[in-house]
Structure formats: C-alpha cells, structure tokens
Amino acid sequence: MNRNTGPAEEVSPGRTESDGAAQDNAAPDEPGSRRRFLKGSLAAAAGVAATSMWDATAAFAQENEAPFPGPATRVDDESYWEKVRAQFHLNPDTIYLNNGTLGLCPRPVTQAVYDGYAYLAETGSEGRYQLWDEVEESRKSVARFLGAGEKEIALTRNATEGLRFIVNGIRMEPGDEVLMTSDEHIAGFAPWSQRARRYGTRYNQVLIPSPPGDKQEVVDLFEQALTPRTKVLFFCHVTRGPGLLYPVKELCDMAREKGIVSAVDGAQTPGMTPVNLHEMGCDLFATSLHKWALTPSGSGCLYVREEFQDNFWPGSGGNGPWNDREQGLWHIGPHGTYERPIRAAIKTALNFLESIGMDAIYARDRMLSDYLKEQLLEMPGISLGTSKDHSLSSPGITSFGVEGWDTSLLQGILKGKAGIIVSRDQRRYHNLVRVSTHFYNTPAEIDRLIEVLKEIL
C-alpha cells in the first residue's frame, strides 16, 4: 500500500459538545487547583460540560497546552494525528505496539486521576461523596459508549473480574456444559475449569482455525459442537493472540434461538471499534477499558442484559442484600473505600475518544493494521495468524509467525535492538508475534518495525 498516493479515506467526525466556559489554569499542586474542583471548571479543549461540583474532565484545561485538535476527518492526515500524539506521555526511546495488553492514557486522563487524588487529600472523607457522583457519571458514560442501558452496566477493575462474575452468576446444574474455544484467555478459561471441578459442571472446547475461512465456518463449528447439555456459549469478541474477530451477533442469535446463554469476553474491543451491545444481542459482556479505551489502569465493566438480570446471581460485593433485585447491578460493584478517582476519570477517557470520533479511530486502526499486513506479506518466511478479511480480523491486532524463530526470543530482540514493544502468542500451537497498533501509532513506526525485522532475519 502506498500511503502517500491515491484518494484519502474519509471518516465521519465524532460527536462533540461544546460550551464557552473559561478554564482555571492553576497547577495541580497549587491552592487554585481546589477552586477547579469546587467551581466545576469545564474542559475547554475537549468541549465537555461539567455535570457537578467536581469534574474529572476539567483536566483537559491545562496551562500552556494547545487546544485539542477536534474531530478527525482523514485517517492519513499525519499532521492531525501528530497533534493527537502530543496528548500522550510517549517515550521517545520506544515504539509502543502493545495496546492489546495495556493502552496508554492520554494526558487529560492521567491529570484527572491526579486531580481526583489531590481532591481526596484536601477533603478527606467528605470528598468521597462528591467523587461517588463522578463515578456514577462515568458508569453512565460507559453505558452510552457501549450502546447499553444505564441499569445494565457495572464498573469493575478489569475483564478478569467481570468474567469471574459471569462464571459465578449463571445458574447451572451438575452436568450442564459451557461451550468455549481453545483460544480463550486464561482469565476466561480458568474460572470455568474451577467451577467444573468444584460443582460438577462441564466445559467443551471447539477448535477454531487461525485464521478461519469465513464467518460461517466459525458459526458452523460452534453449532456442531453443541450438545443437549450446553447451557452457555462463551467466546472472545476478539481473541488476544491471533486477533480473530468473532461473528458475535450471529453466535448470539444462534444461542438465543436455542435457549442458550451467550457470554462474551470483550476485553479487546471497546475503544478500538464501535461497540453496541444491544445490537450485538449477548446476555453478558465483560471488558477491560484500560486497553483500547485508554482509561486508567484498573478499570473495566460488566454488562448484563436487563431481561437476563433476574437469572443472574453473581453474589454480593460486600454491601447490601445480595438478592435485592431493585438495586439492579449495584451490589456487584466495590463498596467501602476503593479507587474512586480512577473510576471518575473513565468518562474523561471516553470523552477524549469521542472528541476524535470512534468511526475515525476505527478507520485509523484499520489503515495501520492493513499497512502492516501488506508489508509483512512481502517478506519471505513470514505467515499471518490474523485474517486479511475485515469481517474476521481485529482492526488493531496483527499477529504473525516467523519461520525458524521462537517468538519470545524475537520479542526480546525487537525490544533490545530498537525499543519496539510487542507481545506474543504461544498458546495452543501458536508461535506468533502480536502487534497491536492504535490510532496514536504511525505508519513511520510500522516502517521501523519492518526495517528492524529485515535486519534481524
């Protein structure tokens, strides 16, 4: 692909709200920072209105920083994306291509976390109540971002915690089966394995090729593996290693038709691609927002379809009656003292993404991964583990194998030789390097990866 010629791919601008409120330029460690909380300063750069006395989005209004560039219209306008990159704490000595493990928080998000903890340091126990309101705003923001109802979302620390709620909350009898794939993350597989040993349930695993031929092959393999005892269909929205995009709506529709619960490990999709859980049709969905959605580390969410909640009993989080259905998913969340500034800053991250536009982010991620795939396929001895078909591949994850190389060794050489940070997948029969590119990465960084690979090989 020649990224310098041909018609530019255009994207629809993201949703932006604006107002004309002034910003408080006090440094976070000065007394004036307290005024920013108490006055509810607005995020002038992102154009997001404050909703209460303290607002994490105020962190956008930082002294001596250029205004945020606004919605993207072209995925190949590198001058625009350089302005976006300026909002991140990027290490000039590294090329970070491991967003599938942990995304990089933009400056407004890290500032919001700092401001939240500074606020608690000033106000003590009284500040917790104000921050609780901000956490609630974050939860509602997550619901809107994922196309879910506000009563269907509970905030968690990560996908692992959400998956544990899922496994322990579905009613199953001894002998009942969950059907999953052989590519599940350990955080998805281990709880089902433990439940099987402890309570006599069973699990079956279907082998999905890497990559499969088409979406129907994936659906057919699942359907052929069903038994009369199958009660739950469990799978990744996108697999962490090969980067396979599952036909999630088709699988959830099949499950619903057969009276089977559909539960999705969605750790790798929100923030990389638009997600609408109502359109997806799953009963349960757990994700880590600190990957592609760029929220603070230690933040995720659990979705439980409202019509399914009466059948979902994950247990109490430590406060309130565990069977109080009027409270919805409230009893799942943490209680007592917990990391409220981190959760309050979730909405700052989502506002940051939406100010660019999720359509633009998706298109940018697709452009980068397609460019990487084309470069890799021109090199001898390299095979793709990720499909070139957009209907089967993640827009951000590209995995490849190198003939004659152990990928853990190759991963270490890339880091030591050029500061290139990637991951690997050596589960099942895989021996793959995993590259996860996000919108703040550049074609030049991909060029450098290819250059170093050629030097090594």
What would you note in describing this structure?
There is one protein chain. The chain has helices spanning 32-38, 78-85, 107-123, 125-145, 159-169, 186-199, 215-225, 248-257, 277-280, 340-344, 346-356, 358-377, 407-418, 443-456, and strands at residues 95-96, 153-156, 177-181, 202-206, 230-236, 261-265, 284-288, 300-304, 382-384, 397-402, 420-421, 423-425, 432-436. It is of the alpha/beta class. The chain has a seven-stranded mixed beta sheet, sandwiched between helices. It has a four-stranded antiparallel beta sheet with strand order 9-10-13-12. Strand 12 and strand 13 (432-436) form a beta hairpin. The radius of gyration is 22 Å and the shape is globular.
Main attributes of the structure:
alpha/beta; 14 helices; globular; four-stranded antiparallel β-sheet; 457 residues; 36% helix
